[in-house]
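The data layer described in this paper is built around a simple, fixed record for each protein. We quote a single record here, exactly as it is kept in our systems:
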Amino acid sequence: MSYMEPEAKIFSCSNSVYLAEKIAKSYGIELGKVTFSEYSDGEFQPSFEESIRGLRVFLVCSTFPSSDNLMELLLMIDAAKRASARHITAVIPYFGWARQDRKDKPRVPIGAKLVAKLLESAGATRIMTMDLHADQIQGFFEKPVDHLFASTIFLPYVKSLNLENLTIASPDMGGSKRAYAYSKFLGSDVVICYKQRKEANVIETMEVIGDVKGRNIILVDDMVDTGGTLTKAADMMMERGALSVRAICTHPILSGSAYEKIENSQLLELIVTDSIPLKKESSKIRVVTCAELFADVMHKVNSNNSISGKFLM
């Protein structure tokens, strides 16, 4: 007697449909139908247009700003719980508010912990996400967290470049663990950038620890926001004799003048995933989809199979 995988359904928040459709196609099912009713004052209400009683539901929603995305996810989780779903997995390719993972000065919130509690209180029974800004955020949850790494889709691309004299670089001290993990799999050297900020999104000073002369550099980071750190690091490394500088960033937030900074910098290429939709196209930005990664892990979770093979870092 062959084993039948339990039935599952995939639904999406309104701003993540572009990715959810690719995940559903890779999973092998149609994206579930959900509608959003909106009141004139901006209040909205999701409604599942098909039965989910007794099923595992995957709710795909990256919680990038505005906060409406997070609110949509919370309401969908609550609706699924009240519709008697058996398991409710919040699939959050980009986990927003993750930079608030600790008190870095007095009288500030720990936003990531608050979001974790909100998701659990709404009724999520499992969390699936990718490249959290800080690994310890997993500990904010009492429910299982599948923390996937985009390295599983980035590394094949990097290897396909066949770069000689490859060096992996971290744009800051906090990303050194990620840089060393990439270098281990690629057999490359590592350099670290040391930076000091005057305030959020504003860099005061930056220095490079290590030799970049005659090397092809790949900067690795979990996200790119204003692009200030990456472009400053790329320009500095080229000034110090690097042959080329590319960057790998999982989540393309790309706010403010990020696109202009990237276009005007000496970055040869910025490789990102589609965890967040690009606001516009750029000749320097290459998007690698994470849909197959999530679909594969969702299959394994639904059939109670191990997903440890997806953790390259």
